[in-house]
């Protein structure tokens, strides 16, 4: 597992796709797709993933925002993915800075699919 430093010295870890798939299936992990709608239209998304495009990410995920999604909780573990893992790393760091306790970068949709995760269209 790789770790990436975030301000304050703590880190956002990379989660293995197989682990994310298993934890999501048990309801222990919320998976978030941060890609744009056109990307999802072209390739689908991880089954059960919540779609929060990066452009609206802070507004929809910040617990202090009136538009924060009801599905989110500072205590519930989350794993984020995009196309390659770069944008999801930035978004994961934002979530950690907002106070989410357990945040992971899953990488890209390909990682989910390659590990046996279902794609919905």
TrEMBL record:
InterPro entries: Rhodanese-like_dom, Rhodanese-like_dom_sf. It comes from the Bacteria. Keywords: Transferase. Gene3D superfamilies: Rhodanese-like domain. This is Rhodanese-related sulfurtransferase. Residues 25-121 form the Rhodanese domain. PANTHER family: THIOSULFATE SULFURTRANSFERASE RDL2, MITOCHONDRIAL-RELATED, THIOSULFATE SULFURTRANSFERASE_RHODANESE-LIKE DOMAIN-CONTAINING PROTEIN 3. The keyword Transferase applies. GO terms for molecular function: thiosulfate-cyanide sulfurtransferase activity. It comes from Albidovulum denitrificans. SUPFAM superfamilies: Rhodanese/Cell cycle control phosphatase. The keyword Lipoprotein does not apply.
């Amino acid at each position: 597992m790789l770790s990436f430093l975030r301000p304050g010295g703590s880190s956002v870890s990379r989660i293995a796709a197989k682990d994310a798939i298993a934890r999501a299936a048990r309801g222990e992990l919320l998976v978030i797709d941060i890609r744009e709608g056109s990307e999802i239209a072209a390739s689908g998304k991880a089954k059960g993933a919540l779609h929060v495009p990066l452009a609206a990410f802070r507004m929809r995920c910040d617990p202090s925002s009136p538009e924060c999604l009801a599905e989110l909780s500072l205590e519930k573990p989350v794993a984020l993915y995009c196309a390659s893992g770069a944008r999801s790393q930035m978004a994961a760091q934002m979530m950690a800075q907002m106070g989410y306790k357990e945040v992971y970068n899953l990488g890209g949709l390909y990682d989910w699919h390659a590990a046996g995760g279902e794609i919905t269209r």
